[in-house]
Amino acid sequence: MANQRPPPKAAAPSPASTVQPDAENAAFRAALAGVIPLHSDTMDLRQPGPPPIPLQSQREQQAVMAELLMLDPGEGEMETGDEIAFKRDGVQNAVLRKLRRGQFAIQAHIDLHGLTTPEAKIAISEFLQTSIQRSYHCIRIVHGKGQRSPGQVPVLKPKVARWLVQCEEVMAYISTPATDGGTGAIYVLLRQRR
């Protein structure tokens, strides 16, 4: 039993552990003497409410605008100039010729004379939505020739052409014959619902 080790000796208490808890509290209080506590119970921590904004009207307007921006305007063929024309890929030239001659029954029309660009965009969007919901196949849009615009350059005509290309339900459009508005109006062929 010569290999047995003696039991370990208890460690001597360190000088820090000899300080009594009451003495620690007294030292802490002494260090904080003269400190004034902050009172935040009078501070209003509530977030201000949202300003009165017609959110539903804004959402409806955004939905109308988003619908006009559905497709890339590069899809299909588009001609611009005095007479404007567009047809999506897959629409036969014979259909465009029939549309040009006015051989489709016009089921609804809208006149944009006197409207600003934002008003016209909303009016076109709503008109297209209504026409699509009613399963119309051919409609007419009067955009004007720009004779009352500065420099007699049409303002709405090229914009209407771009807006219509962006609506996937528009299969084709073309300027109307002189008897139905000429280059101041277009016939629009909508996708037929099955």
In short:
The chain is α+β, with helices and mostly antiparallel strands and 194 residues long. It is built from 5 helices and 6 strands, in the order ααββαβαβαββ.
Q: Under the CATH scheme, which class of the domain at 79-190?
A: Alpha Beta
Strand content: 5-15%
* SSE succession: HHEEHEHEHEE
Number of strands: 6
Number of helices: 5
Radius of gyration: 39 Å
- Could you please say which CATH topology of the domain at 79-190 applies here? Ribosomal Protein S8, Chain: A, domain 1
Structural class determined from secondary elements: alpha+beta
Mean pLDDT: 78
* Biggest sheet character: 6 strands, mixed
State the helicity in percent bands.
25-40%
Question: How far apart lie the N and C ends?
Answer: 103 Å
Assigned CATH architecture of the domain at 79-190: 2-Layer Sandwich
Strand order of the largest sheet: 1-2-5-6-4-3
Inertia-based shape: elongated
Sequence stretches where pLDDT stays below 50 over 5 or more residues: 70-80
Give the topology.
Elements: H1 21-31, H2 55-68, E1 77-79, E2 85-87, H3 93-100, E3 108-111, H4 117-133, E4 138-142, H5 156-165, E5 170-175, E6 185-190
Parallel strand pairs: 3-4
Antiparallel strand pairs: 1-2, 2-5, 4-6, 5-6
Helix pairs in contact: 2-4, 4-5
